[in-house]
Automatic annotation (TrEMBL):
GO cellular component: cell periphery
Name of the protein this chain belongs to: Pollen Ole e 1 allergen and extensin family protein
Keywords carried by this UniProt record: Signal
Position of the signal peptide: 1-25
GO biological process terms, semicolon-separated: root hair elongation; unidimensional cell growth
Length: 179
């Protein structure tokens, strides 16, 4: 009988750490390093084909999204040197989500994406709508905006900046006749 009780006692000691993990032995001298949160910088926006009716203006009334259009994100540091450049392609709905992998800031204020990063039109896959327009400064570099859009996870955060909608324009627009 005493042997049975001893076996049960030993088994309960062995199972105790499994049932109550906080009772398991651990090294209190080992520093526990908190997991670092990964923070990504993202730029998003839309690319359209501007309607002939509004060509030459900034109006996007009647504009259609362009799938597979290309834009570039250019970031310059406080010394006006290019510190990041990459092209991105729009999805089937004309939307781009540009995750700036490798983007670094040496000066948190002057190299900030709102100050140093811009979006430019690169190319359109539509032969009938491939001329660059300056809607939201797409020709010369559209500035970014921050609209308090942040994606948060346990160990991840994406700070999302927005470029205003950009547009290509048709090469051949028939003039409207006013009879």
């Amino acid at each position: 009988m005493a042997s049975n009780q001893l076996t049960i006692f030993i088994c309960s000691l062995l199972l105790l750490p499994l049932v109550f993990p906080s009772t398991a032995a651990h090294d209190e001298t080992a520093p526990t390093e908190p997991m670092k949160k990964k923070v990504d910088v993202v730029v998003e926006g839309m690319v359209y084909c501007q309607s002939c009716k509004y060509s030459g203006s900034w109006s996007l009334t009647g504009a259609k999204p362009i799938p597979s259009a290309k834009v570039s994100v250019v970031c310059k540091n406080s010394n006006k040197q290019v510190s990041f450049y990459k092209t991105y392609e729009t999805d089937a709905y004309g939307y781009f989500y540009a995750q700036l992998d490798g983007f670094k800031m040496s000066n948190n204020v002057l190299d900030h994406p709102l100050h140093g990063c811009h979006v430019k039109l690169v190319s359109s896959p539509l032969t009938n709508c491939s001329l660059l327009s300056n809607v939201n400064y797409g020709l010369y570099a559209a500035p970014l905006r921050f609209k308090n859009k942040v994606l948060r996870g346990t160990h991840y955060e994406a700070v999302i900046y927005t470029a205003g909608p950009l547009a290509f324009r048709p090469a051949q627009c028939t003039p409207e006749s006013h009879v």
